[in-house]
Specification:
about 350 residues; mainly alpha
Length: about 350
C-alpha cells in the first residue's frame, strides 16, 4: 500500500517541479545559480566580518548574520552531495564542496558525509542510519541529549559504543551487509578527522575559558587556563567569533530540527511516508531561520531527492498540499516524547 502512496506523492511533486521550471526558464542555469548563491553568501559573510573586525557592528549581529548565511551554505552542500551542481566539472564541484565545508568546520567531511547521506536515504529510521543517529535522532530527551545536540565529537564519543553494537547486531540479523557496515563506520569516524575535531577542541577550550572567567568574577575562584592556551585563544578570536560560534548556533538549530522531524526505530522499511514529518509550526521560526527552514522542506526531499533546495522552497506549498492529503504528518511534536518513534504505542 505504501508503495502506491509514495509513488503518487513522488509523481505529483515531480510534476509540480516540471511546471515551475517551465514557467521560469532561468532555472535551467542550475550551475550558475548554485555558484551565485555560494558567492553571494561568502561576500555577505566577508563583509559583515570585516565590519565586525573594525568595530562597526556588534558581535551578536555578526553571529546572527553568519549563522543564517552558513545555513544557506549547508543547503548548498546538501545539493552538492546529491551532485546537483557541476556534476560534469569535478574540479569546480569539489572546490565548492571544500569551501562550504571550511566555512562550516564543525560538520563532517562532505566526501565522507556523502556515503552516510546516501545510506540515510536508503535506510532512514533504522538502527544503522548513522547520519541521523549521530545528531541524537531516536534518543530519549533529557539534559544529555540537549547538551550534545550540536556536538559531533563528544556527543558521538558517548554514543559510539551503542551505535556500533547496534550495527553489529544488524549485520548478524541479516539487515545489513558487512561490507556496508564497515564503510559507514569508517565514514563516521574518518569524516571527523582532522578539521571537525580540531574545531570542536577550540570551542571546548573557549567554553572552559568563559566558565573560569565567570567563576573568577563572581566567586573569586582565581583559576585560569595556562598562559599558552589563553594566548592561543586570543590569536584564534576572529576564527571563533566569525566562523565557530555562528556555526555552533546554526548546528544546534539544524540538529534539533532534523533529529525531531525524522522518525526512528519503528519505520516500515522503504515507507517514505513514515520516515519524516513536516515541522512548520510558527514558534519554531527562530530555529528554522538558522537552518534555512529545514523543517519546512526536508520531508519533500525524501520523496524527490533530485531537486535543488531553492526550487523545493519556492514550490513547497503545493508539495505540502499533496503530502498532507496523502497522510504525511505535520507538526507531530508529540513524537519528541516518544523519542522520535512513528507509532504512538511503540516501546522506547
Amino acid at each position: 500500500m505504501y508503495q502506491k502512496t509514495t509513488s503518487y506523492i513522488r509523481q505529483e511533486i515531480t510534476q509540480t517541479y516540471k511546471n515551475f521550471r517551465s514557467k521560469y526558464p532561468i532555472l535551467k542555469h542550475q550551475n550558475a545559480i548554485g555558484f551565485s548563491i555560494f558567492a553571494l553568501s561568502v561576500i555577505f559573510s566577508a563583509t559583515i566580518s570585516v565590519l565586525w573586525l573594525n568595530n562597526m557592528v556588534s558581535t551578536w549581529l555578526l553571529v546572527v548574520v553568519n549563522a543564517f548565511l552558513f545555513g544557506v551554505l549547508h543547503e548548498l552542500e546538501h545539493d552538492l552531495i546529491h551532485y546537483m551542481y557541476f556534476k560534469n566539472n569535478k574540479i569546480v564541484h569539489n572546490l565548492l564542496l571544500l569551501f562550504v565545508w571550511l566555512l562550516r568546520p564543525l560538520t563532517l567531511n562532505p566526501w565522507f558525509r556523502r556515503t552516510l547521506h546516501f545510506h540515510h536515504h536508503r535506510f532512514s529510521g533504522t538502527l544503522h542510519d548513522i547520519e541521523e543517529r549521530g545528531v541524537t535522532n531516536g534518543e530519549k530527551w533529557g539534559i544529555i541529549r540537549f547538551l550534545f545536540t550540536p556536538d559531533l565529537v563528544l556527543g558521538n564519543l558517548i554514543r559510539v559504543r551503542k551505535l556500533f553494537a547496534d550495527i553489529k547486531q544488524e549485520v548478524a540479523n541479516g539487515n545489513l551487509k558487512i561490507e556496508v557496515a564497515h564503510k559507514i563506520k569508517q565514514a563516521g569516524v574518518f569524516g571527523l578527522i582532522p578539521i571537525t575535531i580540531v574545531s570542536h577542541l577550540i570551542l571546548y577550550l573557549f567554553s572552559i575559558q568563559l566558565i573560569l572567567n565567570f567563576l573568577d568574577v563572581n566567586f573569586g575562584l582565581g583559576i585560569y587556563l595556562p598562559e599558552q592556551l589563553t594566548s592561543l585563544l586570543t590569536y584564534l578570536s576572529p576564527l571563533i567569533y566569525i566562523i565557530l560560534i555562528p556555526n555552533l548556533l546554526r548546528q544546534f538549530c539544524l540538529h534539533l530540527v532534523t533529529s525531531n522531524l525524522h522518525y526512528f526505530g519503528d519505520v516500515e522499511k522503504g515507507n517514505v511516508v513514515e520516515q519524516t514529518q513536516v515541522i512548520n509550526v510558527w514558534w519554531t521560526f527562530p530555529l528554522q531561520f538558522f537552518c534555512f527552514f529545514f523543517g519546512w522542506t526536508h520531508a519533500i526531499h525524501h520523496f524527490v531527492v533530485n531537486e535543488t533546495f531553492y526550487v523545493r522552497h519556492l514550490t513547497r506549498k503545493k508539495a505540502h498540499q499533496i503530502m498532507r492529503a496523502s497522510g504525511v504528518r505535520f507538526n507531530d511534536l508529540a513524537s519528541i516524547k516518544r523519542a522520535n518513534r512513528f507509532h504512538k504505542d511503540s516501546k522506547i
